[in-house]
Specification:
single chain, about 725 residues, alpha+beta, Beta-Lactamase, Alpha-Beta Plaits, 4 domains, eight-stranded mixed barrel, 26 helices, 26 strands, about 45% helix, C-di-GMP phosphodiesterase, PAS, Diguanyl_cyclase/Pdiesterase, PAS-like_dom_sf
Amino acid sequence: MPELANPLTLSGYTNTFYAAILEQATDGVIIIDDQNRIVFFNAAAEHLWGCSASAVLGNNVDLLIPLGHRQHHNDYIEHHRKTGIHRLVNTSREVTFVRSNGDYVAAELSLSTALIGKDNKRYYMAFIKGVTEEVHRRKLLELQSEVFAALADYTTIHDVADMLCSKVEELVPNSIATLLHITPQGGLSILSGKSLPSSKVNKLDNLVLSASDIQTLRANPHHACALIWTPKQGQSQLNDLHDCWASAICNGAGELIGIFALFSRNKEKITDWPQKIVTGCIPSCASIIEHEKTLYKINNFNNIDSLTGLLNRTALSTRLRQMLAQTGQAPFAILMLDVDLLQDVNNVMGYNSGDILLQTIARRIAALCRGQNLVARLGGDDFVVVMPDADRNKACKLAHDLNCISREPIEVKGRDLVASLSIGISLYPDDGTEIEEILGASEIAMRQTKKQARGGFRFFGKGGNSNMRERLIIGSALREALQKMQLHLVYQPQICALTGTLCGVEALSRWQHPTLGFIPPSTFIPIAEETGQIEAIGLWSLDKSCQQVIEWEQNNVYVPIVSVNMSAVHFCSMDLPDQILSVLQKYNLAPHRLTIEITESVAMRQDPETAANLTAIRNIGVGLSMDDFGTGFSSLSRLAQLPLTEIKIDRSFIENFENNISSLVVAEAAINIGKRLGIKVVTEGVEHEAQETKLQQLGCDILQGYFYSKPLPAKDMPLWLDTFPARRAISPLA
């Protein structure tokens, strides 16, 4: 080693006073000469680097520089010597360097420079304070804050885990961090570990913890290292990984939920301080995994039926979409199951008993369909089973087995109940290629089964179920038609049999669909009643008809009365009288100019709501007409009690009554009943003069039919009256 001049004696001092002070300093002190050689290395520096002064004095200072910066270090110093431009000199900053044993040490570096001696040679002096523990503690706290902030910001779990592992790898250079989640089955799921060698990934993926392993990890978290790493494994198969530190992760309840591990690429053995880093990260790791579990529970809550634990409708639709998105999707069957007994159980034994019944049946279905079949509850008493790669025979066998298990007695509150399932089956792609189409087909078949063969099963058939499909299509289109105001009204004149003048009109709904074309009332009215849309149609007709009467009158066309049809649904609501009164007031229409037509079945109902509504409507002053009189089973005693203002004889009784004595007798009897009760009689379906003459002879009050006019759009009513001026009614205000 060359003889080096001590810079501390070159200023003229002959003693080593300053050298002694620096030697005893608690911080490491290093001085290099103009050749970048180490000329001073105190005891604190020896402790920090883990090597003696004699081993470093006279050597280039890059011996102490981390390997990643060593190559360019001399160039940095030389640049400063020549230009005086610097980034580190006269500053303080954190640095990380490697001890002789391979450990990484965090320190605060303060660097200064001075010109020494008669030749003004530039020396550099560094003060280094070891702050590894403090730095790591602070950085771990900062990391934990970043993790919580990322979780609160709805960042994906894998992104948060990657961020944590990346920060830890900065704290322990030349390392690979990985966060592992322990599955309920004891397997390991890698949440983060992008730099892990594929062979190590495979090892971790295939590792399954035993009950004994889990118990040991809960008692001794550091045992995780022994489970995922052995020196033999590292030397023979993973030559780029040479050490490992790991810790088990438990949640607040003490349950084992994961493992956090740090693998080292350093060949030299490092001391155990990285284990402190791993241990310090455990709270952050636990937060990440618990957050993932919470999201999983929330996702399950959104996709699982809370009563039965089966998939719900949303999850089923998602799975079906995934199936249909697959190229070359094989045929599959959808079985829709309806529990026939549920409503009776709810009514007799209470809803808790109904829930027990549903839960039991759900468990039986799930047990039978365990495997690749999807099982879901749509709500109420409807379940769905999706059977992949199935044909009619396989679906038939499953439906038979489902019926068998449903008939086994179910004990509910001490009673043995025997349920049954009505099952409808549709096949993909034969019965549809869209999710709603296939599900709709199975529902059609199920409803058919429930109606005709309860407790059995039926396949959807395009021929046999075409009417059902038509009802579904029209029902859906009708809902849109109401929203887009596609319905319109026509008005058929009603003629006074005695004077031949107009005494009123009947408002009739019509529907011209943009693509389906004209849909007759005989088709869409029953569907509207089945789907609950008839109430909206009736109220719309009421409002539009009253408005039209006033508009006609403003154009010198007097229509004495407008008749509007109301269904049975309307009379279930106690709001009906107020709704009628509100419309009359809205258009300032006298109540006697409105007649509400009801069916014979509604008139014969004896429930309090219907009776109260009929009375309230008559008290307003609005007329009440019983439509299609004679087609049902009217009770004369009941008829006498009703507050009717008219009855309408059905057209079927006058179609051929001049040649059919029975029809004539019925028509005559109906007219006589009306006269005896003091109410008007209207006859529909008058199509030729002979019928008119006969009905006039029988004393019928009002005539209606194509003999006078077909139903007319509102704009054609003035033209019709101009064509037949004798029909024009005279307004009492004229």
